[in-house]
Amino acid sequence: MSQLNGEFFHVSVPAPHVYLIQANRAPVNAFNDNVWREYSKVFEKVSLEDEVRVVVLASGLEKFFTAGLDCKSAPHPMFRYRLNNPVDPARAAFHLGHHIKEFQHAIAAPERCPFPVIVATHGIALGLAIDIIAACDVRYAASNTSFSIKEADVGLAADIGTLARLPKLTGNQSLVHELAYSARPFSAVEAKELGLVSKVVEGGRQEVLNAALAVAMNIAEKSPVAVMGTKRLLLHARDNTVADNLDYTAAWNAGMLQTADISEAVASVRRKRKPIFKSMNAQINRKADAKL
């Protein structure tokens, strides 16, 4: 696992086919440029692992999921670009826009991961925390979690994913608007009512992590072809019409229904045993290595 670890993120395999990524930047898991770039790279590396089928994202710190953007380590890039280009706002805007897109791409890493990503939040979860959570597939919160879409309190509109994804995750548009405008704290219970999380786990870090790992282990026993395809089709459905998604699903399953996993799943039911599925990456990687 050491080859997957970074300076700020630790990767482990607590159960077969389940990879756990934990943020460990004391004291509050604040994100600067180095942290979010490493975040993206860790997800990219984990996605290519032979045995991965489910990823759990959590914090390794007892009281914080993340305090959001690290405003102390360096000034916001907006101010850096204005200082470097004091007489030309257009060039400053061009460079700042590129920086924002890089940041957005990095925080969307769980969405690009071909396998489900389950996030377990606890403690303080501010600002960027909502961007991170919204890009994950399954979202659990400990009962002690305190959330906030904090950006309005520091003079900007959230720009890394919250405002793009949150309206599509929830049916309560009024509450989304209220929380984004006011930047007020909201509890795990209110986050569930909003639709940001699907489950509130009584307790703190360890309790919500245990719950996330339990559902991850259940998913990891399913056909990786089926689970990967389900994620792909759900994401496509979110951003497209029903008719377009049905066409996409037909094209996708025209290939994927040829998998041996279906025969294995049926056989396991008949023989009353657990199915044994091949990993998604291992066979391909071995063939690629053989060609080299």
Could you describe the 3D structure shown?
- With 292 residues, this protein is an alpha/beta fold.
- The protein folds into 2 domains: 9-220, 2-enoyl-CoA Hydratase, Chain A, domain 1 (Alpha-Beta Complex), CATH 3.90.226; 224-291, Lyase 2-enoyl-coa Hydratase, Chain  A, domain 2 (Orthogonal Bundle).
- 50% of the residues lie in helices and 15% in strands.
- The chain has 13 helices and 10 strands.
- It has helices at residues 33-47, 77-84, 89-107, 109-112, 128-134, 162-169, 173-182, 188-194, 205-220, 224-239, 242-256, 261-271, 282-291, and strands at residues 9-15, 18-23, 54-59, 64-66, 117-121, 124-126, 138-142, 146-148, 186-187, 199-201.
- A 6-stranded mixed sheet has the order 1-2-3-5-7-10, with helices on both faces. Strands 4-6-8-9 form a 4-stranded mixed sheet.
- α1 links the parallel β2 and β3.
- α1 packs parallel to α3 (89-107) and α10 (224-239) packs antiparallel against α11.
- The model is unreliable at 286-292 (pLDDT under 50).
